[in-house]
Amino acid sequence: MKIGVDIRVLMDRNYSGISEYTANLLSAILNIDKTNEYKLFYNSYQNIGERLKIWERDNAKIFKTRFPNKIFNYLLQKNFSWPKIDGVLGGTDIFWSPHFNFTSVSSKTKKIITVHDLSFLRYPEFFSFRKNFWHRALRVVKTLKQANLIIAVSENTKNDIIELAGIDSAKVVVVYSGNNLQKKEINDEEAIPFLQKNKINSSFILYLGNIEPRKNIANLIIAFNKLKAADEKYKGLQLVLAGAKAWKCSQIMKEWQKSPYQSNIIFLGYIDKSEKEILYSRAAAFVYPSFYEGFGFPPLEAMAYGVPIICSNVSSLPEVVAEAAILINPFKPEEITSALEIILSNETVRNNLINLGYRREKEFTWEKTAQAYLDIFKKINDQPEAEK
Fold first, then answer.
1. Domains, the chain, ordered by start
2. I need a surface site. Which of 89, 128, 150, 315 has the fewest CB within 10 A?
3. Residue 179: is its pLDDT beyond 90?
């Protein structure tokens, strides 16, 4: 079987979100499958080939086109459906796209696309004009209708695909993701310099993810303010917000600026894997109050490190955490505050959440995800043309 893979999401130096998903899953697939032939495609006017060589194997080769990306995407792929990417690859049986992108392949190739979420259709108000323009340009619904099979990363995402894009449920398969982090013991010699550099003390609540409206950080800051005001014992407690600033951050920054505990709220910006591991290893609690998630990696990562979790009771998050977290209504900051008080003061609840988290996160492995993909590739390839 000749399998084409769109690796344009792997062109960035720093991986997060979908690029991290693709990197971990592709590694697991290539580690398991030594038989099928993988043709990995990217386009770049710049020479970044050295960065992508890590994906080459005896049965995995990299192919590229060398156009400026705007010309390749908007002009050639979107408007002229040229070049056919499977043609660039010398022919494929299947072409897998791990994310939405401008992608033109011939009718000879069966198309599989992974959908992480449809938040831009469910909540367009959470996105900038530029982001919404990009999503409209991608013609997402048309792309989904043209696919032979759609892989959703959660039941919630599957339901959105059916409802918002009008796709037949039989065409959508749910495959859960793996956990991006395995627990690593972090000693003080490694942790203390980073914590001191960023003025993080021994007691802090952690949030990890982009700083953007969908993540509900404004309500998290309000909840933190209520917690600090409730009891003097929380005087030294900090809120650490780790993640790059994205779009429409003004309301978040306003809440931070008017907080009487502004000095206890730390924005770290983008952090790398080793810094993430330090934070998970030292956090008193992890809070993920997002209004919407297609899957949600950070709660799984926190579970691996034994951090008790508070997260929203909406979208895919209850699927991921099951009973291993305190679920809250993200529209009610007082519920976040109450959950934090319980975790920080009730040792029995805290230990129970930690133990449930350890067990829960072990259910999500990239090997399991990769095997599910390989089964799907075989099933789709074996289908006659009439069943496409």
1. 2-178+366-387 (3.40.50.2000), 188-361 (3.40.50.2000)
2. 128
3. yes
